[in-house]
Amino acid sequence: MADPLIAVHDVQKIYKTGDVEVHALGGVSLEIVPGEFVAIMGASGSGKSTLMNILGCLDRPTLGTYMLAGRHVAKMNRDELAETRNEVLGFVFQNFNLLARTSALENVELPLIYRGVRAKERHRRAGAALARVGLGQRLDHTPAQLSGGQQQRVAIARALVGEPKVILADEPTGNLDSRTSTEVMGLFQELGSAGITVVLVTHEPDIAEYASRVVVVKDGLIREDTRQTPRVAAPPPKAGES
Amino acid sequence: MNPLVTLRIALRAVLRNKMRSFLTTLGIIIGVAAVIAMMAIGAGAKAQVEAAFSAMGTNLLIILPGSTTSGGSFGGFGSMPTLTWDDMAAIKDEVGTVHLVAPSLRSTQSLVSEEMNWTTSVTGTTPEYFQIRNWPMAQGAGFSQQDVDSGTKVVVLGQTVVDRLYGTSANPVGQSVRIGNTPFTIVGVADKKGQSPTGQDYDDASFIPSTTFAHRIQGGLGKFLIGQIYVQATSSETTQRALADIKTLLRDRHHLPPGADDDFSIRNLAEIAGAQQQGTETMTTLLASVAAVSLIVGGIGIMNIMLVSVTERTREIGVRMAIGAKPMSILLQFLIEALVLSIAGGLIGVSLGVGVAWWLAAKFRWPMAIQVDVIVISVGFSALVGIVFGLYPARKASQLDPIDALRYE
Lengths: 242, 409
Description:
The complex is a heterodimer. Chain A has helices spanning 48-55, 78-87, 104-115, 119-132, 148-160, 178-193, 205-208; strands at residues 6-17, 20-32, 37-41, 63-68, 71-72, 89-92, 166-170, 197-202, 213-218, 221-227. Chain A is an alpha/beta fold. In chain A, strand 9 (213-218) and strand 10 form a beta hairpin. In chain A, helix 3 (104-115) packs across helix 4 (119-132), helix 4 crosses helix 5 (148-160) and helix 5 (148-160) runs parallel beside helix 6. Chain B is an alpha+beta fold. Chain B has 13 helices and 12 strands. Chain B has a 6-stranded mixed β-barrel with strand order 4-5-10-7-9-8. A two-stranded antiparallel ribbon of chain B has the order 2-3. The model of chain B has no long low-confidence stretch (mean pLDDT 86). Classes of the chains: A alpha/beta, B alpha+beta. The A-B interface holds A 53, 56, 58-59, 78-79, 82-83, 85-87, 90-91, 93, 97, 99, 101, 110-111, 113-116, 158, 162 and B 1-2, 5, 16, 315-316, 318-329, 402-403, 406.
């Protein structure tokens, strides 16, 4: 087995509200190797979002160690966390979180702007990323002019454009109907086969079926960690088809 | 992150809410416009005072004869002749800081042309007088030292007198005019000079050689000079020294013991002009400070709207942070947005202020005096206002927790 890309060891997250300590995570250990497609499942309040935030370098663990691509996340300052998010990670959110009144191309370019990539190179790479998710013809559309599925594909293109090692998706199909959900999952499977690690948080078992590994979180602890043969999603639409 | 890209993001954010951005900058616009207009008006008023005083003469000292004292009542300066023609000669010869001297003997007389008459002041003087007062001839050559030496009956008229006696576009040089009963030949018309700082018409005057004045108008008083002595110092720096030197000289010549009052008085016009200018300057500063306060109020308006903007765009900030924006990038984005607002306000304010100043100058016939440094300073100050009042909201945005920001509804 390859060296783990993500290595979480006995991670705890404790929130203090007044005198009460809440153990959102009570000692989680998890290793994910490159190219894996992991679904993290759990009910709301199970701690799966906290785990996701820590994996996404948006939050630091209270105790325990988190190694991402060979680096200690707990020791990073805010700037280093931002750099890591920009270069190693790509985010996909439930509600897409695209910038309103901003074209698809510019939305996708955003991570490259913060990396300091020159304009010409940015346009080229953002265009390529949009073509990869099948939206090569809609570069100048604003989110309001796109359907939910298309918006999520723009968001995936934005996560992809920086050539990340890991894509973190937080309930990416939560706002989509089942047909577009399948399309999006197919896209994730394709990324997985291209060597990108995908970590997906969901509470829907049929969405988790598309992953090659399912981790179930309950009460801040991992209760199940199983590998499975993923269900094959319908092939994603070709570029320009939608 | 490329500053140009940041600028573009900021510009887009500003243009997205055009009305709101405009209203936000209005405070700065009004503040800057008020500062520019006030400073221009102040500078205009100052230039006007300066022009009025320099019309009286440059580096000018006026020496007045002393006062009489009879039975305990003081007659005021000029009521007794204490200055002599020899005093004047001594000032000219012995005080090194003195450039020119001229007597000014005045009387009010009726001037009669062939068709009209006009009562005006008649001043007996020498050609130096016109040099001291920077007063060239518009027509003719004026009179010469020879005319003074031989007491010729020649006269130089002011423009107002010419207008009254001969009509506005007439050239009366060579014609004869009677002063009292004596006919004088007109040898020059003095250039139009305008009004004195106190509103007196400089051009309502006529000038004849001082000797002619003493013989024909005043009746000779011999050695005494019945009038004033105009003195021009060599430069504006030496005016004060010339004043002190003349004072010492005259006290010595008049044999005044130490402790006794002067029997003459010396007026320094530069000092009077300075005082007047200081007055206008104080007024200008006062008005400009009031205007500057409105700039600060404008800054508070920017801060307010930037705080609203940060709250509104909390999610956007969260997204930007999640995809790799460093706190400094977020800070710069909002700071530059505030700067764009304030500098735009500053520039619009400058054009408005220049417009208002121009309009006021035209309306009240003030000299227009837009100073480039004032424009640069007010735009710079509005930029400073943008930075000062934009920093807090921008810092607040950059310190947001990305998780909370992403979750913000």
